[in-house]
Here is the input.
Amino acid sequence: MSEQVIYSEKSDQPIILLGYMGCGKSTVGRHLAKQLVLPFVDLDDYLSEIHGRSVPNLFLEYGEIGFRKIEKTALDDLLASAQASVLSLGGGTPCYADNMQSVIQSTPYTFYLSPSISTLCHRLYSEKDHRPMISHLTSEDNLQEFIAKHIFERKLFYEQANHLLYIQDETPQELVDQIIKKLG
Ligand code: S3P
Here is the structure.
């Protein structure tokens, strides 16, 4: 029996990946969905699609608070149409309004992907200009300090996930294998 059949027989609930920007939610989510033959939704891409603008442009147009409202509505819509799928959240999604509570109530399959701060910093520095939360930071040291503080504030939410994956140098496939094992 394939992994997809095993998963779908057990559950019509989504598998939800969360964590800080650059933690690999989208890459791992895409691989996981492919392997389980499930639909994949990346919340940022979904927002861009329904609003016809990129995430940086949504921030420019509506500001961060406006973006969080749009993000919450989209999350609630996706959770209401719950089905067997893989959903990757935005880095800030779990940390606003009652989003994390809604996420936890919708499925027992929530995974926090947590690489080290230096790995995140290394991944994010070259792409920071396209990321509204960190585009103002001018040096790698500033970025590292910002990420450390930001994760300290956010991990209260992230750590409510049912499964915590502390990532070292695993490949996306190795992480997919770890997640599949935890689906039981
Ligand atoms: C954000 C993370 C981004 C995106 C937006 C805000 C954040 O998503 O939603 O730029 O507040 O951490 P990714 O984590 O998918 O890059």
In short: Residues 21, 25, 44, 55, 90-92, 131-133 surround shikimate-3-phosphate (CB under 6 Å).
